[in-house]
Amino acid sequence: MLEFVLNFLFPPACCVCGKLDRNWLCPKCEKRVERLEKSCVDQIENKKYEKLLYLFQYESLVRKLILRYKFSNKAYLNHFFANRIAQNEKNQELLKQYDMIIPVPMHKKKMQKRGYNQTELVANELEKSLGIPMRKDILSKVVNTTTQSKLGGKARQSNIQHAFFIQNDSEVEDKKIILLDDIYTTGATSEECSRVLKDAGAREILVLVLAKD
Ligand SMILES: [Zn+2]
User: Fold this and answer.
1) pTM listed for this prediction
2) What is the tens place of the pLDDT at every residue in 155-187?
3) Can you give the CATH number for the domain in which 29 is found?
């Protein structure tokens, strides 16, 4: 009922061009965004994670799409992003070498406020399409940090330090892990999550993000 009322007051519109569309992404813009897909793998040195796979560069249409996508529950877009990741054969081949997907967790308070964790929803879709188990019972966010995008480089690092906690240590021992997040900017969140996972014995970590800034 609430959804019906909301749809009436704020009819679903394409996140990119604003045209009314119940999927929040019109077919024309979907094609335009698809053409921007990169699916690039960076080899990372001197960090706690070994690889970074990003689906898009965080710019132009993609930026617009992700910004609007993040702050409301648009199921179709979870599918869209997960499909873009999973349908690429090169991605598939790489990702299937890993044991589990861990979505970067949100703090309980933020989760209550927003009602869902977008990254978790995409991880859920990936679990279904790639058959890699999604584990949200391992990493938790114990400090309710300031939103990273509001901070500069150095501040981001200290803001996120010791914000994550690991349960079920033994489950990650010697495992290859995909750490899923939405946007990669300075990599401070990825680094901190990876540090905790490596301390618990994880063997290798691939950071997978929708877009790299
Ligand atoms: Zn559109």
Assistant:
1) 0.93
2) 888 888 889 999 988 999 999 999 999 999 999
3) 3.40.50
The pocket of ion ligand 1, defined by CB under 5 A, consists of: 14, 16-17, 26, 29
Q: Which two tokens stand for residue 128?
A: 């279904």
Cα(53) to centroid of ligand 1, in Å? 26
DSSP state of 107: B
Residue 59 Cα, ligand 1 centroid: separation in angstroms?
Answer: 16
175: domain range?
11-212
Burial class (CB in 10 A: 0-12, 13-18, 19+), 77: buried
For ligand 1, the distance from its centroid to the CA atom of residue 55, given in whole angstroms, is 20
Distance 79 CA to ligand 1 centre (A): 17
- When divided into structural domains, the chain yields a total of 1
